[in-house]
Amino acid sequence: MKPVQKTNAARLLDAAGIAYELVPYEVDEANLAASHVAEQLGESIEQVFKTLVLRGDRNGIFVVVIPGDMEVDLRVAAKISGNKSCEMLHMKELLPTTGYIRGGCSPIGMKKPFPTFIYESCLLYDYIYVSAGVRGLQLKISPQALIDFVGAGIYPL
């Protein structure tokens, strides 16, 4: 197995002295679903979180980090972010906005910090997985460390 390349997200965590583990997995370009990632990692889908980027009608871009088996509720997302409505960011806007591609979007190290909200179930676990910023690599991290590092709000409290 080839050595794992450090991503920008990993370097930022290193610089902040935050413990994490980089966990590679086999990418299936035809199946970028979180369920596939969880299967590859041999972990519960509830512990593999996906990072979604949305645009609100009032406050612009924001990020939600939710368990892989959940769908984002746009009404709830709008409410927690101080918007009246919101929509998923269009795929073609993801890379220029965040610096990341679909299936490799990390809540850590986007081009600029966006308001971030993480689903409360993350606190049930000692660790969760989020994208390390490239397809095929996950960050295994304490949810509280992630919350503190990105300044995330917890929802739905």
Task: Supply the key terms.
three-stranded antiparallel beta sheet, YbaK protein, 25% helix, alpha/beta, five-stranded mixed beta sheet, 157 residues, 8 strands
Structural write-up:
The chain is of the alpha/beta class and 157 residues long. It has a single domain, classed as YbaK protein (Alpha-Beta Complex). It contains five helices and eight strands. The strands form two sheets. A five-stranded mixed β-sheet has the order 4-2-3-5-8. Strands 1-7-6 form a three-stranded antiparallel β-sheet. Strand 6 and strand 7 form a beta hairpin. The chain is globular, with a radius of gyration of 15 Å. The chain starts with 7 loop residues before the first helix and ends with a strand. The model has no long low-confidence stretch (mean pLDDT 94).
Note the topology.
Blueprint: H1 8-16, E1 20-24, H2 34-41, E2 49-56, E3 60-67, H3 74-80, E4 86-88, H4 91-98, E5 116-119, E6 128-131, E7 137-141, H5 143-150, E8 153-155
Parallel strand pairs: 3-5, 5-8
Antiparallel strand pairs: 1-7, 2-3, 2-4, 6-7
